[in-house]
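Design review, sub-item: ligand-bound model
Attendees: FS, YL, KQ
YL presented the inputs for the magnesium ion complex:
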Amino acid sequence: MTTQNCILIGAPVDCGKRRTGCLMGPDAYRTAGLVAALEDLGHSVEDRGNLSPNPFTAPSHPKLHAPAETIAWTEALAEAAAAALPDGLPIFLGGDHALSLGTVAGAMQHAATSGRPLFVLWLDAHSDFHTPDSTDSGNLHGTPLGYVTGRPGFEGFPVIENALPHENVAIIGLRSVDPQERDALQETRIQRVDMREIDENGIARPLGRFLDRVAAAGGMLHVSLDVDFLDPSVAPAVGTTVPGGATVREAHLVMEMLHDSGLMTSLDLVELNPFLDERGRTAQVMVDLAASALGRRVFDRPTRAY
Ligand code: MG
Ligand code: MG
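KQ shared the predicted structure:
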């Protein structure tokens, strides 16, 4: 198995929604043994500690929650992502999903510099395709895919020079999409896989189709894993539980296929709220999934197409 230099970057972002607690996420992953799990697989692990947002002042906003802080985090995380990618495989320890405004933007910069296309796999109950104008809640953790694909309304955020093409995005696990997001998504070529499709066809086929496209394009692949991709019965530590999510087995299959593909170049672990956890079980599941994505398995299997 190829070993990698895994770069852990703590991103205690807690401003993407109103319920707090995700700022404890990075340390929960460390406590749950992430470093040892990766080292046991033969990888080297470099923990760069926790980031802070760039300096900001926080005027209130009539609708959006903490836009200035989110912008400040976006700047810091885009820089950190672009700086880490040449050195190895960054794993961003969230923090809520607002952190991905920055990590994906940074991965896009790095991919552009490398002359390769970037693809994004979004494992989430939600599509996170809102804009600051379309969101009713004002919670910016629901906007990162809107931002990186170049939707309008992100005043004050770092400018996205070359928007991520819709066909380079797949969202798997969908079961809670606002009407405005659904209308907007239906006009795009974003690959959308909801739980019904997973129930009917399994999770391997749609994922395999996407990975085939990434491989054919010689692409880099950023993976963003939201805790609520999983069913709340196995991953309760999240503020946005939606019943009917992926099973532990489906999630491990996704992660093992990602490893088999050799395509993943960066990873977000987001929305873990340790304050809502039960004796650390959600943090542990997320660490186990990260280990699967980096090569842990029960038995070796001969390499095959997905
Ligand atoms: Mg999300
Ligand atoms: Mg979600």
